[in-house]
Design goal:
The chain is built from 11 helices and 8 strands. Strand 4 and strand 5 form a beta hairpin. The longest helix is centred in the middle third of the chain and has 22 residues.
Length: about 300
């Protein structure tokens, strides 16, 4: 049921109050200066209510993007600390740029403007964000908005789904050939850091990421069954990793001289934190005269050479 009530203001001006009542839904009303606007609002509102669109539109006019980010950080990031620092950096950027905007104003045109600014903004002297970094900024915000759509009903659709992310360049793949591998391992063996050689052997043998290796604990290694367990991985799933050949040998030798003040396999000066091997690895690469090579590239080097 819908009615239009004619009202006269104290100044003698005529206004029209539109009222919509549908069974099972709270009454909705709005006031207009023209009767034709009131009629159109009634038609649109009844259609939106029947199609479950009206209340998300109303919520979108009540909340700002900052409200959404605050709730997301409290309900999601607070209990899921993985990548917390990066996600918070991303969300803070969106908050500073358009946090004051109502969610009803969040549309593809506004988001694409922000995307373009992310790409063009200088973050240091002459340096700009890469397309991959901008895509991550957009993904972090989109995930929060998606939750507001599906669970909070603050929005009807996620406008980020209609905005194209920057095109990322094809992944860089760098392998060590046999000669380069042998030179690098020899340089690691002569390094001042006794942990560098076993770390690099593990990386080449297992394909484990740097963070997975450095945060490895002795309780997660089962030498008798030639395997180790990774509890914290990039995709959030626990996985078992076989350790055979040279990898098994170096871990066996390391277990005999392990530090008893730390659970970590590769502890640093602080027994609670892993060793910082960045400088040592870079120096070993330089001494081995290997060009254009990073630690992550060890994942691309075939593990089958150790079998």
């Amino acid at each position: 049921m819908a009615v239009i009530q004619e009202r006269k203001t104290a100044m003698g001006k005529i206004k029209y109050r539109a009222l919509v009542r549908l069974k099972g839904y709270p009454p909705q009303s709005a006031t207009f200066e023209r009767k034709t606007d009131a009629r159109k609002w009634i038609q649109d509102t009844e259609s939106d209510i029947r199609n479950n669109r009206h209340f998300s539109k109303a919520e979108a006019k009540k909340h700002t993007l900052s409200d959404l980010i605050d709730r997301y950080e409290k309900l999601v990031l607070a209990i899921d600390p993985k990548n917390l620092k990066n996600k918070k950096t991303h969300l803070d950027w969106w908050r500073n740029q358009i946090g004051c905007r109502m969610l009803s104003e969040l549309n593809p045109a506004l988001i694409s403007q922000c995307r373009d600014y992310l790409l063009s903004e200088e973050i240091s002297a002459g340096k700009k964000r890469s397309p991959a970094t901008v895509a991550r900024y957009m993904t972090s915000m989109s995930h929060a908005v998606n939750l507001a759509v599906k669970e909070w009903e603050w929005l009807e659709i996620n406008p980020f789904s209609r905005v194209k992310k920057p095109t990322e360049p094809r992944g860089r793949v760098r392998f060590l050939d046999t000669e380069e591998r042998d030179k690098l391992l020899a340089a690691c063996q002569t390094s001042r850091s006794k942990a560098l050689y076993p770390i690099v052997v593990l990386a080449i043998s297992t394909g484990m990421r740097q963070g997975e290796i450095l945060n490895l604990k002795w309780k997660d290694i089962d030498l008798s069954h030639s395997r180790l367990t990774l509890h914290e991985t990039k995709n959030g799933e626990r996985r078992a990793v076989p350790i055979v050949g040279l990898a098994h040998q170096v871990l066996s030798e390391l277990s005999k001289v392990r530090r008893m003040d730390s659970q970590l396999v590769f502890p640093g000066t602080d027994p609670e934190k892993p060793i910082n091997m960045r400088a040592g690895f870079d120096l070993a690469v330089s001494n081995a005269k290997i060009e254009d090579f990073r630690f992550h590239d060890l994942r691309h080097t075939a593990a089958s050479t150790w079998q």
